[in-house]
């Protein structure tokens, strides 16, 4: 079988035909003007950045983490001197291969992510690495948002949104980046930097780039003199259209600087580097009326678009039956969707308004038009924000969800087309017919139908030439359908990329494309800036440099490498992201399949343990953002299990079996460590543990730190069973770790919790035989399967007894342990699974929020409280309840926008402290300057991690809640 691989080489070959990473000369030269740690050159680095969300792959020669405009200028100069292509990349969520290269890849997400609101929310200043949804979160208090609203807005960055002129659900044409652009700061390949917001920007541009300025005006005169071309340009940009350069800039603007800045929108990084943009915001309409309308078939749904649009719908998302089948199990989706006929289709419709007084009007409009169109069942609309969020979450995650159901070893190919609204219903049928003609019987159609914008997805194997030819033939027919039959647009919002580059002239004609080529030559005469994108001389560019998709472990095999997971990964700025862990794993499997150990495989295997395994928090936060719920941590835990020897598994099982003995030993070790620290200083204790780590291994022995918690008391406070309304389980982490150095001592956590339950009149019972009982998370996270299974089963048996056969709920005072209990079912024996199903585990956060706080009296609120939601709190969906507890305690609650997993991951912060330092950096920066009266969380080691990062003492929320309610004892 012939393997069609990226770069036209044998699979996995690194640049230059070797497997040894970046050439030495390239590294040395780049490090002359970029600091060494920001030049990534190892094979694992290059493979990790070789893919974006598209079905293309190119392996870069080096990856540079640029941090300043001067470095960008230096990179432009170096690119020209060495004749090496240069590509800028933000989030890498590109679906058409715009953010990959076999030259130098410049990652700008890390150091270019600032956001500044201006003019009371009317404008927003953004750097290209800022995540779109993060920008909207900052604008939300102003009742504003950015115009573009792509489905990937939770993951994609402003650089991609601007460079692709992304639109989305409600955006349409008038609210895209082109039409909402206020000003732009860009750096040309020549090194010239212009801020178009400067009053003298045009003068500066004309003086410093006189040849380019005059040429732009010349192209403008040429277009305007050609009436047919000018008319075609005006016509094509009335609809969504991102195929080719934005030629409408030549018609819409007079000054060269304005023409060029708008040409950069949608230019896919092929003309200049966008360093900053100021966008005019649009109103974030607060009142919404949303419904999933069901139709007998796609044609009926397509025919309903025009009347729904005329009725004022702001968003109309069409979905065919395969789309609905992919999301029918998602929260919020109507139960009847599962019973729909195979021909069925749906429209997710939303009506919006600014004022509450307008709500009756939009409801009447929505319900009125719903009665006129041909529905399978009466429309159900909702005003409930939570239900609306569920519907939109299902729609926004549709592409990765569709990709997840593809056959292993195939790629998902996704394109977006535009048809005139009046022909949309017929075009949908024609597109479906092409699926059948070319053998794509599982093809999917959905999209932003309000604007005539249809997406399609097909599954294709590129493992042999027949698959490549099948796809090439299909694309030829698609182009004919869109351009020749309906005069639509081949690209609506994802950019031309590589997939549509060969068909640019088919859509635009030779005159328009000639202008595009002249524009590119004027700005980038050597063709080094993102070559092969938009303008590509190869008629087969759309089937060159294709990804291979080897089958890997089931935990991650369905990943389409969309990158939705990356922004929540605690190791994203230290080692690898979840997507990159999967990309590298695929390469390792590919190398193994080629037979034997290759040099590249050896290099990857050498670096993967630290970058892929040790520095993965295994927190599962990636799963919260993945539309198909892939937990890359589960893959890493499998690798950890594989790496254990039989002896290591036996030792771990032995510790689990004797955990009641291990607990006091752990407290004794802490006590001795603090004694050494008090006597000889923290440096002596740190040095001692460093020696031990070198002896027994970094993964086995924790590194001492001066903020290591002191041991908890060996005895737990008593609370009787009689009259108890719940079982209180003090987690083992809270039975071992007590107060941190510098923290107010005195009341222990169990004592504080029991005090507030008594004050609230909700008695709880503390089992006397709790020692040695654990949720199993320490074993599970390290991949010690036998030890985890043993202690999980023992704990469930004990919980069954304590709870009187499930009659009493079990309250856990560490959120990660609550989550560990709730997710241990698969590790249990059949008998214990039956018991588990009757047990109720409640996190102390939800118990305190629901049962205690309504019955407690807080006399004197703190001025301010900072709240850190742990990853377990997020995954259990109780973040809002923890924030509400903060509101009960303080007059002002601070929840950082950059709040995320601290990376401590049980003991990983003691084993690999650099992971926690990296994971908490942004949250700590957000909190800088907020001198809060209290800093709270709900997990002991996470509190240690956050204390390290912020230099503030983080405690369980239980402590300040107990302190704030002590007056109730006096009143009693």
In CATH, the architecture of the largest domain is 3-Layer(aba) Sandwich
The CATH superfamily of the largest domain appears as FAD-linked oxidase, cap domain/gating helix
How many β-strands, per DSSP? Answer: 26
Largest beta sheet: what is the strand line-up? 15-12-14-13-17-18-16
What is the helix content? 40-55%
Q: How does the helix and strand content classify structurally?
A: alpha/beta
The fraction of residues assigned to DSSP E strands is 5-15%
**Cα-to-Cα separation, first versus last residue:** 82 Å
Low-confidence stretches: 1-19
Overall shape? globular
Question: What is the overall pLDDT average?
Answer: 93
Q: What is the CATH class name of the largest domain?
A: Alpha Beta
- Radius of gyration from the CA trace? 30 Å
CATH topology of the largest domain: Vanillyl-alcohol Oxidase, Chain A, domain 3
Main sheet: strands, sense, barrel:
7 strands, antiparallel
Oligomer: single chain
Draw up the topology in text.
Layout: H1 24-30, E1 39-40, H2 43-48, E2 62-65, H3 69-82, E3 86-89, E4 104-107, E5 115-118, E6 123-126, H4 132-139, E7 144-145, H5 158-163, H6 177-180, E8 181-187, E9 193-195, H7 201-208, H8 210-225, H9 227-236, H10 248-252, H11 256-264, E10 273-280, E11 282-283, E12 287-295, H12 298-310, E13 315-320, H13 321-327, E14 345-353, H14 359-372, E15 381-382, H15 385-396, H16 398-404, E16 411-418, H17 424-437, E17 444-448, E18 453-460, H18 465-485, H19 504-508, H20 510-523, H21 578-593, H22 599-614, H23 621-625, H24 632-643, H25 646-657, H26 659-680, H27 682-696, E19 726-729, H28 732-736, H29 749-759, E20 764-765, H30 777-782, H31 785-802, E21 810-812, H32 815-822, H33 830-836, E22 841-843, H34 844-852, E23 865-867, H35 871-875, H36 879-889, E24 893-894, H37 908-911, H38 913-919, H39 921-927, E25 934-937, H40 940-950, E26 954-956, H41 958-964, H42 967-971
Parallel strand pairs: 2-4, 3-4, 19-20, 19-21, 21-22, 23-24, 23-25, 25-26
Antiparallel strand pairs: 1-2, 5-6, 6-10, 7-11, 8-9, 8-10, 12-14, 12-15, 13-14, 13-17, 16-18, 17-18
